[in-house]
Structures are given as C-alpha cells and as structure tokens.
Amino acid sequence: MSRIPVVERIMKANDDVAASNRQLLDEHGVHAVNIIAAPGAGKTSLILAVSVALAGRVRVGVIEGDLASDVDAQKVRAAGLPVYQINTGGGCHLDARQVRVALDQMPLDEIDLLLIENVGNLVCPVNFVLGEHTRLGISSVPEGDDKPHKYPTIFANVDALALNKADLLAFMPFDVAEFERLVRSLNPEIAVFQVSSTVGTGIDALADWLAGLAA
Amino acid sequence: MISTRQLATFGLILTRGYNRPAMHEYAVTENVVDIVCRHAVKAGARRVRRVHLVVGELSSIIDDSVQFYYDLISEGTVAQAAELVFRRVAVEVECGACGYVWQPADADWTCPQCGQAQARVRAGREFYVESIEVED
Q1: In this complex, is the C-beta atom of A68 within 8 Å of any C-beta atom belonging to chain B?
Q2: CA distance A203 to A206
Q3: ipTM score of complex
Q4: How many independent structural domains does chain A possess?
Q5: Which residue segment(s) compose the domain that A208 sits in?
Q6: Contact B120, B93 (CB under 8 A)
Q7: What is the pLDDT of residues A172-209, one digit of tens each?
Q8: Distance CA B117, CA B26 (A)
Q9: Is A7 on the interface with B (CB under 8 A)?
Q10: What is the CATH number for A132?
Q11: Domains and CATH numbers, chain B
C-alpha cells in the first residue's frame, strides 16, 4: 500500500473549458455576466428590464439556463434579443461545456454584453465558472433579509448584487441596512443595487453599471 | 446502500457523459473519479483504497452523497470501492484594515477586533484531491 500525492483541483476540467470560453468571448469583445439567484428572484424580468434600458447603447445577448422548457427564451426572443436556451435536463447548474455549445450558436460579433441566466439555485452554480467576466447575484425582498446567513457562499462570490422587488419593501418587514451590512461584511468590494423590474426602480443605475463593464 | 441495479429498476439510470441529469454532487464526483483513475493508472496501481479530499467550507456544499455517487461512477474502474476521506477546511478571513485573522462563526464577517468590514478570505475555498492510497 502506498500513498500517491495528487493535489489536483476537482473543478479543473470545468475551469479549463471556462478559460477557453473566456478567450472566445474576449476575441469577440463580449463581456459576459453570470447571473445567479434563487428561483423566482426575478432573473428573467430583470434581464428584460435592463435590456430595455440599454437599448441603443449596448447590444445585449442572452443565454437562458433552465431545468426544462424554453418559456424564458421565448420571453427574451419576444423582446428582440438574440437568445440561446440551455436545458440542463435536471442539472442544478450551468457548466462551462453547456455554455460553450451556446456560444458556438450565438452571433458573438453582434453582442457587447452577454447575460447568462443560470439555473435558479443559490448553491450549485457557485462552483461552476462558465468563462464569465462578472458575476451578478440577485436577491429579492420576499426571500427575506436573512439570506446571507443561509447562503454566505453566494454573497461572498459575486461582484454585484441586485436586491430585486424593492417596491415590496413598503409592505414587508425587511431590514435593508442590516442585509447590506451583512452582505458587505462577506464581500467588501460588492456593488449593491436596489431594483424593481416591475416599477423600474434602480434599473437605470444597474444598466449604467453593466454598460460600463461592456464598454 | 442502494445498488446500481435497484436504481436502474426505478428507472433512475445514471449514465456518464455530458447532458445527463445531475445534481452538482454527481458532476463533481465524476471529476473526482476521473482524477483518481488517471493518477492510479499512471502509478500502475492495482486498486485504490482511499481518496483524500480537501474541501473548504466556502467551496461547495457536498455531503455523504458524494460517496454514493462515487460508488456508482467508479464501478468497474481501478478506483472502485475506495473510501472517500474528507478534510474540511474552516473559513478563515483576515481584516484588510487591522490584519486580525479569525474564523467567523456565522455570516457576519465584520472584524471583531476593529469593527471594519474588510474581510479577505485566507482559507475555505480549497477543493481538491490531495492524495490517493493504492495497492501497488
């Protein structure tokens, strides 16, 4: 019996494909954002809202990740954006290979900003880098202000956080100051946006920030 | 422990490769089996007895299901029936303001020393196969 040292990163296979995705995106001048949130946080609605705000300034493309169906892709397509739907067939996250297949189908030369909507999940997507330049997390007011306690990993691993459904703050007990304090304690560099896709609060600020990334 | 055959009976047949149903533990475990097989074959090992994994508490939520998936995926390989041994690494952060180093007990990483929110992660992101024990 002998012990063989290995010291190999478990996610290396995915990370390698992600690095190649990143290179492809850079060659085409596309800035990719991996959007991670729980089901129902409002990922698709927020994508649509910022895309409207960016119209004429930044060319947006979308990759939709879902367990099944193409209802999200249909909404995005109806808004006139190039979109590719990935169905993970039960998988709880997107991985770099799935995104590679999508990238090969997308008109990358006609896109400045690629918004990748991950599968609704606050745990699994964190491990799987896709080749994105930026990670945007979305929390929504009805999910409660204690989310950072339950899922610290996601808050520690995104570049920006949109607190969606901010219009509901008037109707629900949600301590925004405490929420933001916790989020910033986990991630001092994080950019935080209060937004509402429904009434339009904060959408311009988030869109401007995204436009800055894609410039 | 449910056998592969029982799973198949329930119609829950897990096949290797891309685009199959997968919890993230399954996908992660596929990578582990690949790494273990590669290193075991390279070393000319007859059989892998133990696999030592280092898992930071920030890196991933994985649990006993990994051993379950491992048993399924490694079947018929040199890595079959090995025991997975986890070394968990606690989250350790350093205050960017005063340099204090501590292991946070909860999701509030405000520095207990100076009260600043400038924590930088020093440990807890590890996620790798450290070593394998093999029969030569």
Answers
A1: no
A2: 5
A3: 0.85
A4: 1
A5: 3-214
A6: yes
A7: 999 999 999 999 999 999 999 999 999 999 999 999 99
A8: 36
A9: yes
A10: 3.40.50.300
A11: 4-91+122-135 (3.30.2320.50)
